[in-house]
Amino acid sequence: MPVYKDSNGSWYAMVRYDDWQGKRKQKCKRGFSTKREAQNWERSFLLQSSNDLDMTFLMN
After folding, report:
1. Inside any domain, residue 57
2. Is the terminal CB of the chain with fewer CB neighbours within 10 Å at N or C?
């Protein structure tokens, strides 16, 4: 998803994701001083929210 420039000169990121129940959610974070900071936050948020609950555990 893209990041946007606010009217006051700062940057913000809008992210749409599926929560753990499968519902579609949207999150917005504002106040980044650079576009790169907003993109890094967006990337890390999507990586955190993409964890799968159907993990298999190996028992030895």
Report:
1. no
2. C
Contacts of 30-34 spanning 24+ positions with Cβ under 8 A: 30/6, 32/3
Establish if 58 belongs to a structural domain. Answer: no
Q: Give the domain extent around 10.
A: 3-49
Tens digits of residue pLDDT in 24-56: 999 999 999 999 999 999 999 988 877 666 667
Q: What is the pTM of this model?
A: 0.74
Spatial separation of the C-alpha atoms in residues 12 and 22, rounded to whole Å: 25
How many distinct structural domains can be found in the chain? 1
Per-residue confidence (pLDDT) for residue 9, from 0 to 100: 94
Phi, psi (5° rounding) for residue 23? -85, 145
